[in-house]
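Researcher: Go.
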Amino acid sequence: MTRKPWLLDRRQMLRGTGAALALPMLECMSSKDIVPPPRPKRLVVTYMSYGANMPNGKSGITNLNAPHHDWSWWPCRDAGPLTFNQSSAPFAPLKDHVSYLQGLDHLGGQKLGGHSSGDVFATGADMAGAEKTNNTSIDQIAAGVHGHKTRYGSLVLGSEGGTGSYGHSKTLSHRGPGRPIPAMHKPREIFDRMFRPYAGRDLDEVRSELACRRSVLDQVLEQSKGLDKRLGKADQAKLAEYLQSIRDAEKRIERTDRWTHTPMPEVDTDGLNLEVSPKQPQDYIRCMYDLMYLALQTDLTRYATFMTESEDSVSNEVGNYSNYVLGYSGNTHDISHKRPEGISGRWDQWRNQQHAYFLERLRSTKEGAGNMLDHTVVLWGSAHPHQAHNTQNYPIQLAGGNALGFEHGRLHRFVGDRKVPLANLFVSMLEAVDVPVERFADSTGPMTELRKRR
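Model: Structure:
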């Protein structure tokens, strides 16, 4: 690149008798030819169980002939610019970074029932119909395209851990049909796995162990050649699935080996209590959000999911959150059926406070000319509304991505002639993070209403 004659070096000095003074930063010291590196484009999906309080409308759709309820999960009655009620008040400072979307759902979840439809929140799969097992989730679609650019393809979190079972999922993330990804739920283990993966071991020893494991997998694949010719169709399908899992394991080993040559990032753990438990709901949920924030901030990954509660948390501490937080006498699950006055709205408000905390952390972290939230699109919602449990008209909020082409600050209503699938939003989310897709689940096209007009 030819240097402009008027362009000064920032190290230019003014030299006088026995002294040298640095010039202040001048406009001519920067060149428009220098292009800063692209910012990471991130995607996050978060889930709350048991729907939300929507008392002034059938099946979650607001009754436009009635005053707006001050404790409805929806912030305002009319589509258009956002105003905020009691329940949604935690998001008021983030008005220009959030949108609410009314009338969206997954067709594939409608036959599953309210407390099972959470299984397909991030996939849109038709598990009660054409697809007997879950399909690939939106985060894994993105990770499949760009996940190799970071140490970890994705981060999968859940307050209860593991995968759960059909109709009782404990994770949002799925690699493909019948392949759920176990959610991590213990803060100390999550931190160590993300930021201390070698546990003080010598890296040469780690690489040697990885090479040994890869060798074993190579031998298994070699010995399996020609075996399928002696099997029936059903066994061939099972064998193919098994061999694919081995190939995937081999890829993960190669990836891990490659990243052993890159130093781990330094992280600030001040105020991070890794010993917290779900018996301290606010501290626990915020610690999980903090871990997700740190993973995104250090670019260890760009795609994350977090199931803050599952739809089957009746026999663990997560099911007692409302007891600890509000002093409610019943199980948290009961709120979704009884919608007790004075409790249901406050429960939503508490959950909104925790999610707003995460969004505010992203917004308060400077990144380039903007902040982390500008470069991170965050989906937040549940798979059924109010008491109906009819798996239609999900409570949905989208946040962030202002630098990725999203415009916020409005309530959008997709009902009647404007009805579209939730999967249309997924298409637009993927396009925003440079993952072009023709369709996702039952999508009919991208959702253009939230995209900036160029």
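Model: The chain has a mean pLDDT of 87.
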